[in-house]
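Hi V.,

You were right to ask for the full record rather than a summary. Here it is.
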Amino acid sequence: MSHPSPSAAHDRGHPVPATPGSAWDHPEPLALDSAPVPEYGVGSLADLLPTLAAGMAVPGMTAAIPELTAADRNCVFLIDGLGWEQLKAHPDEAPFMTSLLASSRGGTGRPITAGYPATTATSLASVGTGLPPGAHGLPGYTVRDPRTGELMNQLRWQPWTDPRAWQPYPTVFQLADAAGVHTAQVSAPAFQNTPLTKIALSGGTFHGRLTGEDRVDLAAAQLAAGDRSLVYTYYAEVDGKGHRFGVDSDPWRGQLMYVDRLVQRLAEQLPPRAALYVTADHGMVDIPFGEQHRVDFDEDWELRAGVALLGGEGRARHVYAVKGAEADVLTCWREVLGEQFWVASRDEAIAAGWFGPHIDERVYARIGDVVAAARDDVLIIASEREPKESAMVGNHGSMTPAEQHVPLLQVRS
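Predicted structure:
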């Protein structure tokens, strides 16, 4: 790896150290307490369904987001990859959702937070279980399975592991269904039997529909089907176009225009006593290509030294050290990357609350010996191990507002 020059760092807004030589080689690392930890317990994705279920008198549920008021029928429309900052930056493409910005988070006009890492598998598990990552146990895109020592991709569920052993808690949908609430999920048919759906979004009835229009029409019908209803629907392609072409690209803008019409179509069909909540699993940032912004782990001997496995994703890495090398790996990663990443040991990240207020014992060793969360416009790619992910334009995972802040738009009938 070729480290950025002092002038390049200064151009990115980082002051050049006054002392030459070794001072530049070892910049002052970011203070861990400067990381904007998600609002677990009061305003995160994990708090949404428990709040809605509590308003429908589901036993054991707590209304954690105080700004929300109860409704008998609740629909959550999750748009994959549509962060708060991206929505606010595109009023022309999303006129309907823009008109709802002031309604976000119970009329405060504020976002909620995704949770760390801000990535789909982690966020969907937080939504469905009502638990933060440290409890539900999906704390990253890929994490080490302590039983096998292998990396486990929690989005694709590879290699296979028993879903119920990996995530044993009931979903909010299951608890609501058991309490007599009419409960349904409306999504792409391909998701019906995936392990992630089973451990995060199961409960009640799954309805597979291919088109966005069919999904929102059926979601409205399912919402009306019970005196108390909890309905979830999902749209993926805003995220897909963002990864491939970047946020603000023409394909991304086209998807935003399309999903804005879907939201309006659903809002216009709400039955009486209903609330529609439009949210997302994370935001997204475009990362320029070039070695100043994309540090290649596979070509960097310093970062590879003492590392047994590299997990997570470019902006939210789990680093698993060779036994006995944990302290050395932490020191090296902090020295090399600590000016642009919050770099923490496992225990430091847990103590800082990155994964929530509590960590289940079964989850502890899934978290990296070193955890690295990007602050700046930079990725840790792995061009050989992760060629597809390393080529993505749009990325997410860390704790910056562009990635963490997601809307909670509201329409009530």
